[in-house]
Design brief:
With 298 residues, the chain is α+β, with helices and mostly antiparallel strands. It has two domains: 169 residues, Trna Endonuclease, Chain: A, domain 1 (3-Layer(aba) Sandwich); 110 residues, no CATH class. Helix content is 24%, strand content 43%. It has an eight-stranded mixed beta sheet with strand order 1-2-3-4-5-13-14-17, sandwiched between helices. Strands 6, 7, 8, 9, 10, 11 and 12 form a seven-stranded antiparallel beta sheet that branches. Strands 15-16 form a two-stranded antiparallel ribbon. Helix 3 links the parallel strand 4 and strand 5. The two termini are 50 Å apart.
Length: 298
């Protein structure tokens, strides 16, 4: 019983490693497709773990990629991902060559950390195969302080000033019932809440633009910020009155969230993906973050 349990855990861990590489390759290929102007009018379909049957033999394709070029033309590519510590051997290449044949693929990409001498020699016999080495231990110095932040607990005070008829001076307005006021911003009627959300966003961004949040530890920090917003003629109207400027005071909390890197893959000539652990936001919702970068050659 203990042996079987240990074996099951090992298989689960191995499968998770393989899945993480497949997920990374899928994201890289999606990125390559979407930034290539030649594919603007095309449709991309990616199937993971696709099963094909040929002559009673079952073949599993890690990533089955189909590009619909339109007018009945399609191109098919398949990917084999081996997140192994040991080198891929000749037999794996032979099996992959058969998968390319069964899938009727134009090309097959075999991705692994390393390939044995015989595997490389076997791959050279099939010009549809391209071997790609993957590195999962490259430096992360490019963003050592990666983090995310969210704002909440926002309180806002505003004081509006009306433009005088000559447009030169400013007169403090009488109190306005903002709840019932008709508000127009840049020619568009908006609600009180929309105005407050816009003001809060401007003020918060103004306060945080010079804040080194990447140097803060995980936690929640309280900020107070005062600023003045100036408006062009008729840019902001409140009950028909032309607002020249607005004094704003905003108080808000900033939650700094950090999460470790859980996987990193750099696929030669294609791109790299860095995946972070799940972030739990103050609202209780969860956020999964992955960053992809296409190598310039693509």
């Amino acid at each position: 019983m203990c042996y079987r349990g240990a074996k099951s855990i090992m298989e689960s861990s191995s499968q998770a490693k393989g899945n993480s590489l497949e997920d990374a390759v899928e994201l890289i290929e999606q990125s390559i497709f979407h930034v290539n102007p030649a594919f603007k009018e095309c449709t991309l379909t990616i199937n993971k773990k696709k099963t094909l049957m040929a002559d009673g033999v079952r073949h599993e394709i890690d990533l089955y990629v189909e590009i619909d070029l339109g007018n009945g033309y399609t191109s098919t590519f398949i990917f084999e991902c081996k997140n192994w510590e040991e080198s891929v051997g000749k037999n794996e290449i032979l099996e992959f060559s058969e998968k390319i044949k069964v899938a009727k693929a134009q090309k097959g990409f075999f991705i692994a950390k390393s390939f044995g001498v015989y595997a490389k020699a076997q791959a050279r016999k099939d010009n549809r195969i391209e071997l790609l080495e993957v590195d999962d231990n490259f430096s992360l110095d490019v963003f050592p302080d990666f983090h995310a932040y969210s704002t909440q607990g926002v309180n806002t005070e505003i004081e509006m000033h009306q433009r005088d008829e000559a447009g030169a001076g400013k007169i403090k307005m009488e109190p306005i019932d903002v709840d019932s006021a008709k508000i127009e911003l840049r020619g568009k009627v908006i609600s009180r809440n929309q105005l407050l959300e816009w003001i809060q966003d401007v003020a918060i961004q103004d306060r945080l633009k010079n804040e080194a949040t990447d140097k803060l530890n995980s936690g929640t920090y309280r900020y107070t910020h005062e600023m003045e917003l100036k408006f062009e003629d008729k840019e902001l109207l409140c009950n028909g009155l032309d607002i020249a400027n607005m004094k704003v005071k905003v108080e808000f909390d900033v939650s700094i969230m950090r999460t470790p890197v859980v996987s990193r893959f750099d696929v030669r000539t294609r791109g790299r993906v860095i995946r972070f652990g799940t972030m739990v936001l103050p609202s209780g919702s969860k956020l999964d973050i992955s960053m992809s970068h296409i190598h310039p050659k693509q």
